[in-house]
Every structure is written in C-alpha cells, then in structure tokens.
Design a protein that fits this description.
InterPro entries: RNA_MeTrfase_FtsJ_dom, SAM-dependent_MTases_sf. With 309 residues, the chain is of the alpha/beta class. The chain has two domains: 137 residues; 149 residues, 3-Layer(aba) Sandwich (Rossmann fold). The chain contains nine helices and 16 strands. A seven-stranded mixed β-sheet has the order 12-11-10-13-14-16-15, with helices on both faces. The chain has a five-stranded mixed β-sheet with strand order 1-6-9-8-7, with helices on one face. Strands 3-4-2-5 form a four-stranded antiparallel β-sheet, covered by helices on one side. Helix 2 crosses helix 3 and helix 4 crosses helix 5. The N and C termini lie far apart (51 Å).
Length: 309
C-alpha cells in the first residue's frame, strides 16, 4: 500500500470529556469519529465547548509506522497525538516524530509561533491529521507548574492559562480591576506581574494580599459600581459567580464607557448551561470565547486592545 492522502471537506471538533453533550448540541449534525472527536462537513461552525478545533483535516492511508511518521514530517515539524484507538501503534508513530515539550510550564510563558498539528488513528492504516488547529497547545492541553503555597486558591491557574493563550499580560505599573476577587487567586497573579490591582468583592481577600501595597480593596458588589466610579483601567478581569446575561450587561456598560482596554472574564454556567450568551460575547469585535484547560463548567471571554507594537 502506498501513502495516499485526501483533504476532508469539513472540520474536526475535539470535545471535552465531561462536556461532550454541550458540543453535540452546538454541532447539531455531525459524524462521531471516536473519543472526543467529531467531524462536521462544510465551513467551521461556531462552537465553544472544545479543547481544540482541527481546521484543515487530511485523511492519510499508509502501510507502515515509518510511512505514517514520514507523511506527517513532510508536512511540518510539530505534531501531537489525540488517540482513542490503536494506542500502541500511535505511540510508535509519535516516537518517530520530532519531540514536543509536554512538561508543565512556568508562568509567564510565550507560546511559540510555530503551528501545532494534531493527529489520530482511525485504524491500523488510516489516520486523520490537521497541521492547523485552533489551540496552540499540544492536543489542546497545557499545564503550569503549580505553586501550592502562595496563591490563596487554585483559580490562579485559570488566569495564567488565559493570559498565555492571549499572548499578552499586564505589565508592571498597569492598572487592573479584579471583580469578584475573593479570596484573591487572580489578584495574586497580577501582583506577581507587578500590576496595580483594584480588587472588588463583598468579602475580603487573603490577609497577605490585603497587606500588599499593590492592592486596593473595595468592599462592594462590582456589578453595582459604574465604570466612572472606578476610572480607566488597562485590564478588566472578572471571575464573578453570576448568570451569564448579568455579566454581559455589566460588560456592555464598560465597553460603552471606553474606560477599559483589555478584558478577561469567566462566563460561569448554571444548570444545563447557557448557549446563547457566549454567542453574544463572541460577537463583540475583537473577542474570542474559549474553554480553557483549567475551566470547569464555564467559558472564558478574552478581548484585547489592538497591539501598539
């Protein structure tokens, strides 16, 4: 058997283990490939409950492990497997490819610009591969080196991932608003970067952060404060527990005010989830809505000001 390849007329959506039903609802019609992988014909559909989206899938048939590896190497360098069958054979193929770094990352970390492809096996002699994917991380996943001593909550990992994915983070001296800050996981990340943080919550932050000279604490419901009450900020962050429409209404006030440059907010779901409000967030110019590796039943909205460089 010689190597044969065929460009597929559609997109592969890589779902999230515990939320595959959410992706199925978003897609409507699809072909289930196996594991967390779904194929849908035509142009890319608007989906949010994915770990990764394979944007240019190719079906490759081969007769040997070497042929499979060579077919991928001839396309580009970086490939990460997403296997749901033929695991041993898949690992033998991956071993013949250039190594990729799967170690836990420090923060901050700049994502390389080189594309990260994804591939899987359908059977012993058939693979699907996509050199272009929506996530820059191998297999759509990233893990950070955890600090189990200083942060007051593990929520800090979520913000670290969002900032790395955005490829931008607050600089020393920039002003940040952290809404729903208690106990202070996100505020901790921002102070580590040297940013000045206005932290708003009805409950105080961890005592160490309350004593930090970079932190100004306001005991209040952030959503009842007008943007003019806070003033201009370089970054607006929110991890507030609320229904998505309420967050959207509050963000609209900030957008109308023009007082915030960059936004990262968690869209937290209740019950079966809200499938309409994330679309409204995604429709805001310059926005992206993603499910982070450290997200649970929630999505993250990211909107950055145009780069000045």
């Amino acid at each position: 058997m010689s190597i044969q390849s065929e460009t597929l007329k559609g997109i592969i959506y890589q779902g999230i283990d515990e939320f595959q039903d959410h992706l199925q609802r978003e897609l409507g019609q699809y072909e289930y490939l196996g594991g967390t992988l779904y194929f849908a014909g035509g142009e890319r559909r608007e989906t949010f409950w994915t770990e990764n989206v394979w944007l240019n899938p190719i079906k490759i048939t081969f007769s040997s492990i070497s042929e499979a590896a060579n077919s991928l190497r001839n396309i580009q360098r970086n490939w990460a497997p997403v296997l749901f069958t033929q695991f041993r054979r898949g690992m033998l193929i991956q071993e013949k490819l250039p190594p990729i770094n799967l170690k836990e990352r420090p923060f901050p970390w700049t994502v390389p610009e080189a594309p990260m492809g994804a591939w899987t096996l359908l059977d012993a002699n058939t693979m699907i591969a996509s050199p272009l994917c929506s996530s820059p991380f191998p297999g759509g996943k990233i893990s950070f080196i955890e600090n189990k001593v200083d942060p007051p909550s593990r929520a800090y990992l979520k913000l670290q991932e969002a900032l790395v994915r955005a490829r931008r983070w607050p600089q020393a001296g920039e002003r940040c608003l952290d809404a729903g800050a208690c106990p202070g996981g996100w505020t901790w990340v921002l102070t580590q970067l040297g940013a000045q943080v206005t932290a708003i919550d009805r409950s105080p932050l961890d005592e160490r952060l309350m004593q930090n000279p970079l932190v100004t604490y306001i005991k209040h419901d952030a959503f009842t404060l007008k943007p003019e009450d806070i003033g201009p900020v370089d970054w607006l962050f929110s991890d507030v527990i609320c229904y998505p429409p309420r967050l959207y209404e509050w963000i609209q006030k900030w957008l109308a005010s023009g007082l915030a440059k960059n936004y990262i907010c968690t869209i937290k779901m209740q019950g079966e989830g809200d499938f309409e409000t994330p679309k409204a967030f995604a429709a805001i110019p310059g926005s992206q809505v993603v499910h982070l590796n450290y997200n649970k039943h929630e999505l993250t909205w990211i909107k950055l000001a145009p780069s000045e460089t």
